[in-house]
Amino acid sequence: MTIWTDRLSQRAERRKVDRSPYLIGAALGVLSWIAFAVAREPIGVTTALSRVGQPIAALMFGAQAAAHNPYWAPMPFSWDYSMLFLVGLMAGALVSSLASGTFRLEAVPHFWRARFGGSLIKRFVAAFVAGALLMFGARMAGGCTSGHGLSGTLQLALSSWIFVIVVFISAIISSRIIFGRKAAS
Q1: What is the pLDDT of residue 184?
Q2: For residues 71 and 122, what is the distance between their CA atoms, to the nearest angstrom?
Q3: DSSP designation for 107
Q4: What would you measure as the largest C-alpha separation in the chain, in angstroms?
Q5: Model confidence over 74-116: pLDDT tens digits?
């Protein structure tokens, strides 16, 4: 595995591209315009993830229970814009990492291992709990980081600007608590 990741790192160095944050920001703005013009919906992911949860809940609790659940009833699974956006987001990330030569399978990232050790179970439990809290917060806030951070701020929604500010403050505090002062600076 090490030889493979070393080769990917070498390829990434050879193909390194200057990714200007201004260029990326402009591209995201154009993507948002296209999403509004074509799909008449903002960029966002949590609704699609919730729709994926409905058939999983149906398998676990029965189709009737999932269909009549007040959370999933208004958003049953369907292959709509948000689901295609979710699939495209994952596929695009994979293609981008493969094209840049930075793709690697890593169950326990090096920065986690340096701080907490190499326990796979500890890492997966922490990732699951963090993901569940993030998803719960995103659904309570009525949108995810992409929904509020991209689409909402582009529309100058006050709730989205508050959300983004709170996310940044929370991320700084969390990184300092979890990884220490050196990692956050």
Answers
A1: 45
A2: 30
A3: S
A4: 55
A5: 878 888 888 888 898 899 989 988 888 888 888 888 888 888 8
Are 32 and 54 a contacting pair, CB within 8 Å? no
Q: What is the mean pLDDT of residues 6-23?
A: 64
CA distance 63 to 43: 29
Instruction: Determine whether 73 is exposed, middle or buried from the number of CB atoms within 10 Å of its CB (0-12, 13-18, 19+).
Output: exposed
**Rounded distance, CA 84 to CA 140, Å?**
23
Phi and psi at residue 49, to the nearest 5°: -65, -40
122-145 pLDDT per residue, tens: 999 998 998 888 878 877 777 777
User: Are the C-beta atoms of residues 160 and 149 closer than 8 Å to each other?
Assistant: yes
* CA atoms of 184 and 171, how far apart (whole Å): 9
Residue type for 18, please?
D
